[in-house]
Design goal:
Strand 6, helix 24 and strand 7 form a beta-alpha-beta unit. The strands form 2 sheets. The chain has a 4-stranded parallel beta sheet, sandwiched between helices. The protein has a 3-stranded parallel beta sheet with strand order 1-2-3. The longest helix is centred in the middle third of the chain and has 15 residues. The chain is built from 25 helices and 7 strands. It binds iron/sulfur cluster (2 copies). The site of one iron/sulfur cluster (SF4) has 14 residues, from helix 1, helix 4 and helix 5. The site of one iron/sulfur cluster has 14 residues, from helix 1, helix 4 and helix 5.
Length: about 425
C-alpha cells in the first residue's frame, strides 16, 4: 500500500509535468492552471489575503482522484493541497446555493435520502433549484429505473426489526465481521447492503454486525474543504464500532478510502489519534476481503453463464493510493466462465469526483464521455464497480447513451452467483 498522504510542500514542485498528462481535468480543459502543477504553482505564489473567486474556481476543478499524487516523483500531495485551499474558502463555498445544498446533503445522510426522493419527482426540482443547478442535473438522473429510492433505508429497516424482535428468540451465530454501510447502500440502494450481507453469510457463516450509530464516512465533507465536519463524522464512526474488535467491512471503495484516512485526519487530536489508528487497522476493503475468503472455497460461488462478459471499473480511490486493482479482478475470475474485458488504454476516471460532478457538471460529463466511448468498443454490456459515486455516474452515463449497457455494484453481481 502506498502512502496515504505525501508532502504538501508547494515549493518543492520541480515543474516536471509528470502529473499533468494523468490529470483527467486537464485532459478535457487543456488549461495549465487546472493541472496539479498549476495548483502547486498557484499556492506557492499566493498570499492568503489575495485569495479570490478565480483562485476558488481553480481549486474547485479537481476530482481528488489521486492520480497526480501517485505519479509525483517528489511525493507531493496535490489533492491534500486542494482540500487545504478549499478549507480556506468558506465564504466562496457558501456563496453558491448549489454547493451549499450539495454539501449539506452529502454530509447528512437523511437529507441525502430526502433529496433523492425529490429526484424521483423530477418536475418538482424545477421549482426548488435553479436551472443551472448541477444538483438538479444529478438528481434528474435518479429517476425511474436509474434510481428509485426505497421506502426505508437499510439501517432504518434493521432498527424496525430490532424493535419488533422478541428478546427470547434464539440469536443466530456470532458475527465475525462488522459492516460499514455507506450512504448509497444505506439510503438509496439497500440491495447493495443486502447483497453484502449474503456474501458475508456465505463467507463467514453469520451476518455482519451493523452498528446503528454509524454515519456518513465524511468524504464529501473533506471534498468541500469542511475538514472539521469530517473529523466530527470520523469520531462518531470510530465510537460506533468500538464495542468489539471485529474487522470492519466497507462495501463502498470511497468509504474505505475515507475510513482508512481517519489515521491522518485525527493525527493531531491526542484523544482520538490512537482510537483512529485502531479503527483503521480493522477496516477491510470489499474485494480483498471476499477474495481471501472465497479463494479457499471456489465452490461457494456459482459459475457465471457461459460467455457472460463484464467490465470492471476501477474507482480512483482504490486504483491510486491503495493500489487495489488485482483483487477485484481475481475475485471475478473465481467465476470460471466469466469473461472480463479491459479498456485498450487501461482504466479511466469516470468524472464523478464527489462535489466536482455537482460544481462542474459540464467537465464531469466530458470526462465521463471519454470513458463511455472506450467502453462502447467492448463487447461487455455489464459494468461492475464497488464505488457508490462511480456507480451513479455509470448508471446516468449508460442511460444517457441509450445503449443496452447496465451498471451494477460488485456485491449485487456476486450475490446473484452464490449458491
Ligand atoms: S487529484 Fe486528479 S483531478 Fe485533482 S489535480 Fe490531481 S490528477 Fe487532477
Ligand atoms: S509530478 Fe510533482 S514535481 Fe512534477 S510537476 Fe507534478 S507536482 Fe510538480
Amino acid at each position: 500500500m502506498k502512502k496515504e498522504s505525501g508532502r504538501s510542500d508547494a515549493t518543492a514542485c520541480v515543474k516536471c509535468g509528470t502529473c499533468n498528462t494523468l490529470c483527467p481535468v486537464y485532459g478535457v480543459t487543456g488549461n495549465e492552471a487546472h493541472t496539479p502543477r498549476g495548483k502547486q504553482h498557484l499556492v506557492s505564489r499566493t498570499e492568503k489575503h489575495t485569495i479570490s473567486a478565480h483562485y476558488g474556481d481553480i481549486f474547485s476543478r479537481c476530482l481528488l482522484c489521486g492520480a497526480c499524487r501517485d505519479a509525483c516523483p517528489r511525493g507531493l500531495d496535490t489533492p491534500e493541497l486542494v482540500v487545504e485551499a478549499r478549507s480556506g474558502l468558506p465564504k466562496l463555498a457558501k456563496g453558491s446555493l448549489l454547493k451549499y445544498v450539495s454539501r449539506k446533503a452529502l454530509v447528512r445522510p437523511t437529507l441525502l435520502a430526502g433529496l433523492a426522493r425529490l429526484g424521483s419527482a423530477a418536475a418538482r426540482l424545477g421549482e426548488l433549484l435553479p436551472a443551472e443547478s448541477g444538483l438538479r442535473l444529478r438528481l434528474e438522473g435518479f429517476t425511474g429505473e436509474i434510481l428509485e429510492p426505497p421506502p426505508a433505508g437499510y439501517a432504518a429497516g434493521l432498527r424496525a426489526k430490532a424493535a419488533a424482535r422478541d428478546d427470547r428468540q434464539a440469536s443466530g451465530p456470532e458475527p465475525e465481521t462488522a459492516y460499514f454501510i455507506g450512504c448509497l447502500a444505506n439510503h438509496l440502494q439497500p440491495e447493495i447492503a443486502g447483497a453484502t450481507q449474503s456474501l458475508v453469510v456465505a463467507a463467514t457463516g453469520a451476518e455482519a454486525e451493523v452498528p446503528l450509530e454509524q454515519t456518513c464516512c465524511g468524504m464529501a465533507a473533506v471534498a468541500a474543504g469542511r475538514v472539521d465536519e469530517a473529523r466530527d463524522l470520523a469520531r462518531k464512526n470510530i465510537a460506533a464500532f468500538e464495542n468489539n474488535g471485529l474487522p470492519i467491512l466497507a462495501s463502498c471503495s470511497s468509504c474505505y478510502y475515507q475510513l482508512m484516512s481517519y489515521r491522518t485526519l485525527l493525527a493531531d487530536d491526542p484523544d482520538w489519534r490512537q482510537r483512529a489508528v485502531r479503527f483503521a487497522g480493522r477496516v477491510r476493503e470489499f474485494s480483498s476481503f471476499f477474495l481471501e475468503r472465497f479463494s479457499a472455497d471456489r465452490g461457494q460461488l456459482l459459475q457465471a453463464a457461459a460467455g457472460e462478459r463484464v467490465f470492471y471499473h476501477d474507482p480512483c480511490h482504490l486504483r491510486f493510493t491503495h493500489r487495489i486493482t488485482r483483487e477485484p479482478r481475481e475475485l471475478l475470475r473465481l467465476l470460471p466462465s466469466l469473461e472480463l474485458e479491459e479498456l485498450p488504454a487501461g482504466p479511466r476516471c469516470c468524472g464523478q469526483g464527489g462535489l466536482f460532478q455537482l460544481a462542474h457538471p459540464d467537465l464531469a460529463l466530458q470526462v465521463r464521455q471519454k470513458l463511455l466511448d472506450e467502453f462502447g468498443e467492448l463487447a461487455a454490456q455489464t459494468v461492475l464497480t464497488s464505488c457508490s459515486g462511480c456507480l451513479l455516474q455509470w448508471k446516468q452515463g449508460l442511460a444517457a447513451c441509450s445503449g443496452s449497457g447496465r451498471a451494477e455494484h460488485l456485491a449485487v453481481f456476486l450475490a446473484k452467483h452464490l449458491h
